From TrEMBL:
This is CLUMA_CG004588, isoform A. The lineage of its organism: Eukaryota, Metazoa, Ecdysozoa, Arthropoda, Hexapoda. Pfam families: LBD_receptor. Keywords: Signal. Residues 35-205 form the Putative ionotropic receptor ligand binding domain. Residues 1-20 form the signal peptide.
Length: 207
């Protein structure tokens, strides 16, 4: 009579081990960029903001939730936060310190929701493409759209063959007054960013 329960227990054990293995693989795959993301929140947002607006705009709900959960575990009660979906943004307040987690297919949708009654265009925006689709063409398109809105303080966490990098654009520079060329301003190496200057000044040459 003990044989059947033992087999059932063994089957459940194997299923549980398999499920845990798959979950661990998923977390391990996302972990480096999630750690990079959390460090920017800890080093910049928590030190400079009273609250953080986390906007999700991705078709990968499970992957997005994994990243958000990882972030919340790390920041705990260090900063107030609000989590919203890009399709259901409220107009109650302007968002100034913003983290956007999205996939590249929703870039246009997210930009359409960046209305002046909802967002402070002089704020600080950090964008993470969950599908790692952040090549030069996508960044050019994104930065052009944001520059049209006069949103300049924006960084994108890129995770590609070059490693994890932070890229932005300098609209005003020595060679141009309307550049949206992606520029690497930081690298995530040995589990840390090489610089703590996450949002460099971009208007210093105008004064």
């Amino acid at each position: 009579m003990l044989g059947v329960p033992s087999k059932i227990f063994f089957l459940l054990y194997v299923v549980d081990i398999t499920s845990s293995f798959n979950i661990n693989l998923e977390i391990k795959r996302e972990l480096p960029s999630s750690v990079a993301l959390s460090e920017i929140i800890e080093e910049f947002y928590i030190r400079n903001a009273l609250d953080l607006d986390i906007i999700t705009c991705s078709n990968d709900v499970e992957g997005t939730n994994l990243i958000v959960e990882f972030i919340l575990r790390n920041i705990q009660e260090s900063i107030s936060y609000r989590i919203e979906d890009c399709k259901n943004l409220k107009d109650s307040t302007k968002r100034r310190f913003v983290l956007i987690i999205m996939d590249h297919l929703n870039t246009d949708l997210m930009i359409e929701e960046l209305t002046p009654n909802r967002f402070d265009y002089s704020g600080f925006y950090l964008i993470y493409y969950i599908d790692n689709q952040s090549d030069i063409d996508i960044l050019h398109y994104l930065f052009k759209k944001l520059s049209d809105l006069f949103i300049y303080n924006v960084n994108v966490i890129c995770n590609d063959s070059s490693g994890i990098q932070l890229r932005t654009f300098f609209f005003f520079n020595e060679r141009s007054c309307n550049s949206t060329d992606p520029v690497v301003i930081n690298k995530f190496e040995n589990n840390r960013w090489t610089s703590k200057d996450f949002f460099p000044r971009k208007m210093r040459n105008l004064f």
